[in-house]
Design a protein that fits this description.
This protein has two domains: about 35-125 and about 250-320, 3-Layer(aba) Sandwich (D-Maltodextrin-Binding Protein, domain 2), CATH 3.40.190.150; about 125-240, Periplasmic binding protein-like II (D-Maltodextrin-Binding Protein, domain 2), CATH 3.40.190.10. The chain is about 45% helix and about 20% strand. It has eleven helices and ten strands. The radius of gyration is 24 Å and the shape is globular. The relative contact order is 0.17.
């Protein structure tokens, strides 16, 4: 009896000790802080968006949201960290459009865009424009293309770096309009825009948010929208697609998680982000920052990434762009 009593007592003790752990494991998601990995330095566009959504998401989920900046190698270092994270819904990532182009540009990546991530939501998109110095003789896309045809390779365009969406937009224009331009890559968007405003290069594809201050100060002018749908923030600026049907370029940001994250958690996060994007105050803040809220299903983001990988991958291959 003593042995049986001792065994029963031990079993009861083990049961009591494991109850808190079991309860914590089975409590509704989330039950602890959530980390959002931003694979870029603090202060950039992706980081600003993360911090814009930080408080609304924390309120909806009832847990602190921690922003972790992990910049370097055009976002691939932080993205690799995200791919290795535990797929439990407590580590998410905010990615930029080059998430879809990196596999074609880099000879080797420490992760697979197609296999190592689960889509949550397409958050926002940023309309892009073709801008030139304020005193440029080109006032529309027709003027610009005609000049490029007359003197192949003479016109120059800036970009914040090889393989950036700005660079790829220009390569798409070269293919679409059958022209030849000369690429002048910079180490970042700020020096590229400064040289463009100073007339040291002829043109640049850039997002509307970054371009507008230069336009408002009289240093640049926009001659065409790269985004086919145009933008209410730039009324009267015709899209390139009016002259060259099918031309459509925009930047985008999205939320992804490590592959293997439970579907129920992915669905909950998608729902919560959609609710945040539909909030009037959040929408007003996004629009003021030059961002167009998108939202939708995880499947919509899957399609955007797949289409972007195909569209830009082909252009990158034909142009032999590597990094």
């Amino acid at each position: 009896m003593n042995r049986r009593t001792a065994l029963l007592t031990a079993a009861m003790l083990i049961s009591v000790l494991t109850i808190p752990f079991s309860a914590a494991a089975n409590s509704p998601y989330p039950n602890k802080p959530i980390v959002i990995v931003v694979p870029y330095p603090a202060g950039g566009g992706v980081d600003n968006l993360a911090r814009m959504l930080q408080e609304p998401l924390a309120k909806r989920l009832g847990q602190p949201i921690v922003i972790e900046n992990k910049g370097g190698a055009a976002g691939t270092i932080g993205t690799a960290q995200l791919a290795r994270a535990t797929p439990d819904g407590y580590t998410l990532g905010l990615v930029f459009d080059n998430h879809a182009t990196a596999p074609a540009i880099y000879k080797s990546l420490p992760y697979s865009v197609a296999d190592d991530f689960a889509s949550i939501i397409h958050l926002v998109r940023l309309p892009m424009v073709l801008a030139v110095p304020a005193d440029s003789p080109y006032n529309n896309i027709e003027d610009f293309v005609a000049a490029a045809k007359a003197s192949p390779g003479k016109l120059t365009y800036a970009s914040p770096g090889t393989g950036s969406s700005n660079h790829l937009a220009a390569k798409l224009l070269e293919e679409t309009a059958d022209i030849s331009l000369t690429h002048v890559p910079y180490r970042g968007g700020a020096p590229a825009m400064t040289d463009l405003a100073g007339g040291h290069v002829d043109a640049m594809f850039q997002n509307l948010l970054t371009t507008m201050p230069f336009v408002n100060s009289g240093r640049l002018k926009m001659i065409a929208m790269a985004t086919a749908s145009g933008s209410p923030s730039a009324p009267g600026i015709p899209p390139i697609s009016d002259a060259f049907p099918g031309f459509d370029v925009f930047s985008w940001m999205a939320v992804v998680a490590p592959q293997g994250t439970p579907p129920a958690i992915l669905e909950k996060l998608n729902m919560e982000f959609n609710q945040i994007l539909s909030d009037p105050d959040v929408k007003a803040r996004l629009h003021a920052a030059g961002l167009e809220p998108v939202g939708g299903r995880a499947k919509d983001l899957d399609m955007l990434i797949e289409e972007s990988m195909k569209k830009w991958g082909d252009i990158i291959k034909r142009a032999n762009i590597t990094n």
